[in-house]
């Protein structure tokens, strides 16, 4: 177990470098003119262009820029964004916000998806199954760019049940609606996967055996089936994080939550290389950790799997 | 499955409302004059006067600083922090400051504060976005340096030969002179811009170097002072500065709340958490008048929207073709149906925000007449295909598509709107002379003079003349106007220059911007000026 | 160096009397496909879904069969007008015929999504199976590869890729969008495949097949894949819907379909802001989209059930 853990950590370091390199390269390829992007449609005076180009090493070749960046990163210096703000400071503000939001979203998603998925699987083809199918499909066919403003309009502006926007240091209550919207991104997939894998397991031999043994239905499903069905669902939570981040880009904008998605949008919009790479670096670390946890969870859920 | 949640939310919301009510009831009775109001803005890029070239930064700085001059309803400058601004030859300007102005840290405002701030602004290596405002001041060139091997090259540019502008001279504690390299009758107006605010001695790390964190809590000479620091992506709070000698503000403080999206601002206004939204997004315009009632307002601003014909696109070479396209566009329909009245049709080459503006200076060419347009277009042999290129990140797709649909119907041509991801991409394509067709452009003025539209947009080599229009006769008239001894004479010459544009039709004027703003019931006397800033001294809280 | 391994010795070699592979468990000498077809023929869900899918495909190929209106003829004067004989679903914000645009939008939406999902599915199967089956360093390498792709913000990758792929202004951007979507969306499928394969390869019947001498290729394709496919197919059918929506987002950002392209995603995003004025231009493309995705999901479910030997 310990050896496995160490090995994964070492792999993680490599992944980290691989990902930051690719992202840096992507940003570099995407960069047409970051200074003009910053100035928007205003003409950019020559002297300003010259001064900023030098300040941010924009005239150096790619490898050199990457080198400068990694050198800073390894000494804990994330550099400054093109608007001259220390990126570390921006992260301290953005990460806790987004983690809170994603966490609530995942909890909402799993609660709804797993419950509804199990019920649908048990009564396959029933009214509940078909209703949830249609509802999830409707959610699915609504891009989040549509869903988020719609939810805000109904619950925040018209009914005023929840605050219309959340802002920087908002309470949990203000995050409920954005989290709900965000969770809609992953509920559909989680629900369908739970349903499929529960249905699969319901037909397996061990369930027949358990039933033949005279175990109550509740125990068969609650203990045996659920545990075996959760493996793909747990995997999904790992990948869902990616979906949530993509969704956060829209949701955080609509609900004005200055989190990671919010910063990434700005970074991509203004071609702010250091900003994007800094945030993505941490994002990769989060992925690695979550996926390590997910892999370890396999072992808990499936005793036949062992790590060494 | 979702059915149960609204109930819980409702219960939660009620609890919160009760809590809020409880707090309000138990607190002190606040006077309207002490009330703190909230205004929605986007995250400013900078809060250094010479580097705040976008409207969010300018909005906050307008509360913290008091300008030398401001503009009245007729766009004429009047004195604020200046006692007098005089010149006999439009080249040497003598500025006398009013006595009694102090910075928020107690320092007296003097001539040095202006001179140092302006030198810093103009010094090239500082990279200040507003530095070009000082271009006209003598010695500006010596503060810039050229990179010897071009931008892409590895070598660094040498330091400029001078650090201070030779055109700025202190006369006494409250008087200084500005010498321009060429006479310019409009200089008084130019000094109304953000770049020209003074900076206190406390702002400097060493001579010519600003303190790193100055912009986190700028110290100004204006009616409001910072309360705490700039909380990035959250808010900037300011409170009334008691020792301010000018017109006192009518509120105790302003909380500038920062939003990334305009739609979020409007949602917050509707949700009751925000007092003023300076620009209501188009999506909300259909419902806003009913949502807000008489708290929904409009006022003109200086935005000028148009499409340009790149000179390298030979199919648009003929003036008749350009005029025919212009005549085939129903501006009125687009401003009402697409923009819901948040913009108005443009029929001139400058905005009404400047003195000297004449309605319909474009004449027949900007009047919708599909039949005439089609006849003229066919007679001139216009191209069968028209393309309009725009930047997709600016919300331009709707009106470009609508314009294309009008051209399709009225000229019988094929028209396509093509979105480039960013404005910079659009510029790159134009620079590479790719067939972009008509290009979408817009302009916001820096100072309210006709020259500020004519020079940058249509002058040979103008900073925003991306389409490459060039007419020596026009350039000459603009230049003569700038050097004219009085504003009246200047305007006359500039208007002659504008007439040339109506003849040459290098661009199609489309729309004029409007501030479409709204506010909560907690505030009144809300006005938004031509620079899209809330009139901070006029706004009041309802008691 | 194996990453994930089964060491439950007791379970592996004792496979006596386990129904080894689907074919041999049956008396009639019918193939798996034959069996499945017999099963599907009597399944009404299959038929409903199949008819819907065929309808949508025909609509994509020959939109003019369904409407005589020109989707490109729009006039602001008709903005948000209600349904009439000429325009079944009324007019949208630009004054275009909603029905005509929905019909013509099918091609871009469905084809792009189908191509993208196929690409994502292929990459997902190959990567996921290889990682799950071989384990060890192959798994470590591929799993980290997936992590890297997952760690990169979709939006950024999509913008950069789409921009690189569609530098030619005269192309519609169709293939650029399809490829971009395929290349960035395969990870979910791959991870699901990997974990399903890991749990499937530990099953007794696989061990039995291996003992009977089946090679890795046959094991993977004949034995593991059919049993690990269930959650994977589910993810893919959902991806179909997601890709239609993502295409809209890309187009909205200016890196997707070019010019006056029509698609459901574009229609949905563009009508959404005005939903309070009139819901029709938003609702109809959404309904078509939901029905299409529903059809594909039902089809996937039915086919999967039919091919699942344990159901019989």
Subunit arrangement of the protein: heterotrimer
Number of DSSP helical runs of chain B: 15
Helix/sheet category of chain A: mainly alpha
Q: Which overall shape of chain A is indicated by the principal axes computed on the Cα atoms?
A: globular
- Main sheet attributes: strand count, strand direction, barrel closure of chain A: none
- Could you tell me the mean pLDDT of chain A? 79
CATH class of the largest domain in chain A: Mainly Alpha
Secondary-structure element pattern of chain A, one letter each: HHHHHHHHHHHHE
Radius of gyration of chain B: 25 Å
Helix content of chain B: 25-40%
Distance between the termini of chain A: 5 Å
CA-based shape of chain B: globular
Protein name (chain B): ABC transporter substrate-binding protein
Pfam families (chain B): SBP_bac_5
Domain Solute-binding protein family (chain B): 80-464
Subcellular location (chain A): Cell membrane
Structure description:
Helix content of chain A is 78%, strand content 1%. Chain A has helices at residues 2-30, 34-39, 46-55, 62-74, 87-122, 127-141, 144-158, 172-202, 205-212, 217-254, 260-269, 273-301, and one strand at 305-307. Chain A folds into two domains: 2-74, no CATH class; 94-269, MetI-like (MetI-like fold, Orthogonal Bundle). Chain A has twelve helices and one strand. Chain A is mainly alpha-helical. Chain B is α+β, with helices and mostly antiparallel strands. Chain B contains 15 helices and 21 strands. In chain B, the strands form six sheets. In chain B, strands 13, 14, 15, 16, 17, 18 and 19 form a seven-stranded mixed sheet that branches. Chain B has a four-stranded mixed sheet with strand order 1-12-11-10, covered by helices on one side. The model of chain B is unreliable at 1-29 (pLDDT under 50). Helix content of chain B is 29%, strand content 20%. Chain B is globular, with a radius of gyration of 25 Å. Helix content of chain C is 64%, strand content 1%. Chain C contains eleven helices and one strand; from the N terminus they run βααααααααααα. The two termini of chain C are 40 Å apart. Chain C has helices at residues 32-41, 44-61, 98-134, 136-151, 154-165, 174-184, 186-201, 204-211, 216-252, 264-271, 280-307; one strand spanning 4-6. The longest helix of chain C is centred in the middle third of the chain and has 37 residues, at 98-134. Chain C has a single domain, classed as MetI-like fold (Orthogonal Bundle), CATH 1.10.3720. In chain C, helix 3 (98-134) runs parallel beside helix 6 and helix 3 (98-134) runs parallel beside helix 11 (280-307). With 312 residues, chain C is mainly alpha-helical. Chain C is globular, with a radius of gyration of 23 Å. The interface between B and C is medium-sized, with 30 and 25 residues.
